[in-house]
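Justification of computing resources. Each target in the renewal requires a structure prediction run like the one illustrated here; the chain below, 209 residues long, is used simply to show the kind of job we budget for.
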Amino acid sequence: MDVLECIKTRRSIRKFLDVPVEWEKVTQIVDAARCAPSAGNLQNWKFIVVLNEDKRKSIAEACVHQLWMGKAPVHIIVCAEPERAKRFYGIRGERLYTIQNCGAAIENALLTAHSIGLAACWVGAFDEDMVKMMVQAKKTGLKLDGPYPALLIQGDDELGALAEVHSKLYQASVNIYASTGVTDSKGNYGYLVYVRPEDHNRAAKALGI
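Resulting structure tokens:
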């Protein structure tokens, strides 16, 4: 398949077969993404390959409940490192060049997947706080998987702060199944609150998140 044919025939696919993808093909896609152009050749990105089914389902939930994603046998997460571009190019590097760099890497990955006979889709809609929470939880060994989604609320460690959160959810008729305080060891504090999936949007609205 030549380049123009690959570009013109690529499509965003949202239905997938329950078939593992050969690791050789996965690495081929990631390597193609790595070869994308970037401002100053900074390559200020990281690629995370997710194969575990439970983790893929959690990611699908974090991507505003796009549950079809969980059926894809491989997720490749592209993480930006804007602070690296900011050091060289200031605010323009942080807010523009970083996005352009990652976008180029993603397009390389999509075209390569298509060229070797794999379907793929670029997903850009996700709850950033929820994804960050999942990453931090993994680093600390905290298990967030379970039957109910969690809300992460930024707060403080003052006495009664969590009670205020409970009160707001009670007034919104939201049932809480579990809650706990969390910290990132840098002085930032917050709360994890687990609610029913059908109550998630109402809880978020009640808490202003």
